[in-house]
Amino acid sequence: MTKHTSGSWIVAVLVTAAVAAACDENAVQVLPSTALQTSRVKFFNFGVNAPGVNFYANDVKMTAILSATGSEATTGVVYGGVGNGGAYSSIAPGSYTMTGRIAATTDKDLPIGTISTTIADGTFYSLYLSGFYNTTAKTIDGFVVEDAYPADVDYSVARVRFVHAIANANPLTLYAANTTTFDTLVVDAAAAYKSGGVYAALPPGVYNLFARYPDSTANKIVRTAVTLTGGRVYTVGARGDITITSTTAVNRPFLDNTANQ
User: Fold this and answer.
1) Ramachandran region of residue 26, left (φ > 0), alpha (ψ -120 to 50) or beta?
2) Cβ neighbours of residue 106 under 8 Å, at least 6 residues apart?
3) How far apart are the C-alpha atoms of 100 and 232, rounded to whole Å?
4) Which of the listed residues 100, 119, 225, 251 has the most CB atoms within 10 Å of its CB?
5) Sign of the C-alpha dihedral, residues 240, 244, 247, 249?
């Protein structure tokens, strides 16, 4: 279990039924006056063709988007998006049923993705809706990975890990090629769908990222000019449809880079 002592997060913690009843039904629910929980979770909507969702832990809303009118927006966390602006939400340790629920007016609050998981004390996680949205059944796949990066900050390196969220792709190896030194480093070798690797230490710099099948020299996904800063921690997530060859399609294979710290 990894303890984390730094980083930024949105305060979105689980509450008792009595406190929840007193909150606006559209609000992200928070404890009014207690210490923050030491466990945290980040929410990603990487489900191809999935509608925008709000994420819940059991029946407690963990993400929501405020509109200009002061009411909750009906967009939710859209495909390719991260809940709470990319920040972690505080959560008490325990067993949960996590759901992504439709944010739009039609089918409002219908759960489309359900993931059962256990949150350990003092541990960080990322939850992903993934795969392809079934428009008939209104369901999507999903999984949770632990964000086990070191608690100590090392400004001499950037730490990077790879998460594979493309349902129709074989295991992928992620490479990072430094655009100044031209050194090419393996970030994660042969990561399978629904898995996340360990955090690799890379020299700070600007990198071209590319993912390949382990038995191939052909790039399946490319992202250029990604800046990795010393002392920061990043997750590179693969999303989309691996069969798409367009360079502009929304559902093309894509390498998302999100800071954990």
Assistant:
1) alpha
2) none
3) 28
4) 100
5) negative
- Exposed / middle / buried, residue 12 (Cβ in 10 Å: 0-12, 13-18, 19+): buried
Tokens of residue 255, six digits? 């390498």
DSSP SS3 for 85: helix
**Is 103 in contact with 28 (CB distance < 8 Å)?**
no
End-to-end CA distance of the chain: 17
Residue showing tokens 């009595």: 18
> Which CATH code of 2.30.30, 2.60.40, 1.10.443, 2.40.50 fits the domain covering 9-146?
2.60.40
Instruction: Break the chain down into helix, strand, coil percent, rounded to 5.
Output: 5, 45, 50
In tens digits, the chain (261 residues) has pLDDT values of: 454 544 444 344 433 333 333 344 444 544 333 456 889 999 999 999 999 999 999 999 999 876 666 678 899 999 999 999 999 999 999 999 999 999 999 999 999 999 999 999 999 999 999 999 999 999 999 999 999 999 899 999 999 999 999 999 999 999 999 999 999 999 999 999 999 999 999 999 999 999 999 999 999 999 999 999 999 999 999 999 999 999 999 999 999 999 998
Sign of the torsion formed by the C-alpha atoms of 86, 48, 165 and 182: negative
Please write down the long-range contacts of 179-182, taking CB distance under 8 Å and 24 or more positions apart: 179/205, 179/206, 179/207, 179/208, 179/225, 180/205, 180/206, 181/205
- Selected from 1.20.120, 2.50.20, 2.60.40, 3.40.50, the CATH number assigned to the domain covering 158-259 reads 2.60.40
Whole-angstrom CA distances from 16 to 21, 29, 32, 190 are 9, 10, 11, 42
Bridge partners of residue 255, in order along the sequence: 238
